[in-house]
Write a structure and sequence with these properties.
Keywords: Coiled coil, Signal. By secondary structure, the chain is of the alpha+beta class. It is 40% helix and 33% strand. Helix 2 runs antiparallel to helix 3 and helix 2 runs antiparallel to helix 4.
C-alpha cells in the first residue's frame, strides 16, 4: 500500500513539472509575439527620412551663345458671340478646324424671322397700292377743280354781262324787281362756287395728303431692314481667322443673344513668350529679330521682337519678352516650347545642375535643395544645355546640394538622408 502510494505521488509530481514547462513555453511565445507586434507598430508608425542621392550645383564654362527657352502661345484669342437667339439648325464647323474670317460656323433657325419679313413685305405692298391710288385720286381731283374753276370763271363773265343788262333794264323799268334779284343771285352764287373751288384746289396743292402713307411705308422698310439684319445674324460667322479651338452648340440646342459659342485662336502669326534674366534682356535690347529653333529640328526660324519689359518682375526676377513669328503652315502650336538664340561669343561661367535633378510641373521647373536633413523645393529658371548639365539662371547657388535621385517621392520640407 505504501509502495503504491509512493509510486502515485511520483507520477503526479512528474505531471506537474511537465505542465509548468508547457505553461512557461507558451508564456514566452506570447511575450515574443507581443514584442514583435510592438516593434512592427513602431516601425509602421515612425517613417524615417527618405533616402536620396545628391549632386552639387557646379560652375562650368559654356559657349556664350545664350539660349533661352520660350513658350508658344496663340497670338490672339477671340470669342465667338451670337448676335441673335434661337434654335441651332445646322452646324457647319467643328472643333479643331482652320477657319477664315467670315466663315459660317453654324446657323440658327430663321423660320419666324422669315415669316415676319413676309408679313412686312405684304404690308408694304398694300401701303404702296394705297399710296398709288391716293396719288392718282389727288391728280384727278386737281384736274376736276381746275376745270370747274375755268368754267365758273367763264360763267361769271356771262353772268356779269347779264346782271349789268338786267340792272340797266330795271333802272329803266323794263324788268321787274324779281328778275333783277334773280340775275344778282345767280352772279353771287357763281362767285361763291368759284371761291370754294379755288380754296379746294389751293388746299390740295399746299397739303401733302400722302405723307401719312409715306411714313408708314418708310416704317415698314425699316422693319424689313431690321429683319434682314437679324437674318444675317442667324448665320454665326468667324470673327477672325485661326483655329476653332472650342465650339459648344449642337443641333437643336437653343442659344440666346450674347452667348459665347466658341473660341478662335489666331495662330498665324504665332506669339512666343519668355521670361528672361537681366543679362539675357541686355542681349535682346536693340534687336528687331531673334532666331529660334524647335526641339527635334535644326532649322532656324526668325521671330520679331514685339515687347521687352523695361522693369523686372519682382516675383520671378525676370523680364517679360514677347515675339511674333510667321506660321503659315501652323506647325507651331500653343503649348510647344522653343529655344531662342539670344547671341554672344566666347565662353561664360554659368551655374549648372544635372538634368536628372529637374522636376517639371506644367511649364515650370523645380529642384530639391538638401540643407542638413531637410529638402527645400525651389523653382528654377533654365538656360543652355551641355551634355547632361543644364544651365540654371536663377533659383540656386553654387555648391548647394541638389537631389538627383529620389526627388519624385519628395515634398517641400521633407526629411531626407543621403545614400550616395
Amino acid at each position: 500500500m505504501n509502495k503504491r502510494s509512493g509510486k502515485l505521488m511520483t507520477e503526479q509530481h512528474q505531471l506537474d513539472r511537465s505542465w509548468k514547462k508547457s505553461m512557461l513555453a507558451g508564456l514566452v511565445l506570447v511575450m515574443a509575439t507581443a514584442a514583435a507586434a510592438g516593434c512592427s507598430a513602431v516601425s509602421a508608425g515612425e517613417a524615417g527620412p527618405k533616402q536620396v542621392k545628391v549632386s552639387k550645383v557646379q560652375t562650368m564654362k559654356m559657349d556664350d551663345k545664350t539660349e533661352q527657352e520660350a513658350d508658344i502661345i496663340a497670338y490672339s484669342q477671340v470669342n465667338v458671340v451670337t448676335k441673335a437667339g434661337g434654335d441651332v439648325a445646322e452646324v457647319l464647323k467643328k472643333r479643331g478646324d482652320n477657319v477664315e474670317a467670315g466663315d459660317v460656323l453654324f446657323r440658327l433657325d430663321s423660320t419666324d424671322a422669315m415669316r415676319n419679313k413676309e408679313k412686312n413685305r405684304l404690308a408694304k405692298q398694300n401701303l404702296q397700292s394705297q399710296l398709288d391710288k391716293t396719288s392718282q385720286d389727288i391728280v384727278t381731283n386737281k384736274g376736276v377743280l381746275k376745270n370747274t374753276i375755268e368754267k365758273l370763271q367763264l360763267q361769271i363773265v356771262d353772268l356779269e354781262k347779264t346782271y349789268s343788262s338786267v340792272h340797266n333794264d330795271y333802272d329803266s323799268g323794263l324788268v321787274t324787281k324779281a328778275q333783277f334779284d334773280k340775275a344778282e343771285t345767280q352772279l353771287k352764287t357763281a362767285k361763291l362756287d368759284l371761291d370754294t373751288a379755288q380754296k379746294q384746289l389751293a388746299n390740295l396743292e399746299s397739303t401733302d395728303s400722302l405723307a401719312s402713307l409715306r411714313i408708314q411705308i418708310e416704317s415698314t422698310d425699316l422693319s424689313m431692314q431690321d429683319i434682314d439684319k437679324s437674318l444675317a445674324d442667324f448665320e454665326v460667322k468667324a470673327p477672325t481667322s485661326g483655329v476653332l479651338t472650342d465650339l459648344y452648340p449642337e443641333k437643336g440646342v437653343t442659344v440666346t443673344a450674347g452667348y459665347v459659342a466658341g473660341v478662335i485662336q489666331q495662330l498665324n502669326p504665332i506669339k512666343i513668350h519668355a521670361d528672361v534674366t537681366e543679362s539675357a534682356a541686355k542681349l535682346v535690347r536693340g534687336k528687331k529679330d531673334i532666331a529660334f529653333t524647335v526641339p527635334g529640328s535644326e532649322e532656324k526660324l526668325t521671330a520679331s521682337v514685339e515687347y521687352l519689359a523695361d522693369v523686372m518682375s519682382q516675383p520671378s526676377k525676370s523680364f517679360v519678352l514677347e515675339l511674333s513669328a510667321a506660321n503659315p503652315d501652323r506647325k507651331l502650336k500653343p503649348g510647344m516650347r522653343v529655344k531662342l538664340q539670344l547671341g554672344g561669343d566666347g565662353k561664360q561661367d554659368v551655374l549648372t545642375v544635372p538634368q536628372a535633378a529637374l522636376v517639371k510641373e506644367g511649364n515650370d521647373n523645380y529642384v530639391f535643395v538638401l540643407s542638413g536633413d531637410v529638402v527645400e523645393k525651389r523653382k528654377v529658371m533654365l538656360g543652355r544645355t551641355s551634355g547632361t548639365a543644364r544651365e540654371v539662371t536663377s533659383g540656386v547657388k553654387d555648391g548647394e546640394a541638389i537631389v538627383v535621385s529620389g526627388q519624385q517621392e519628395l515634398k517641400d520640407k521633407d526629411k531626407a538622408v543621403v545614400s550616395n
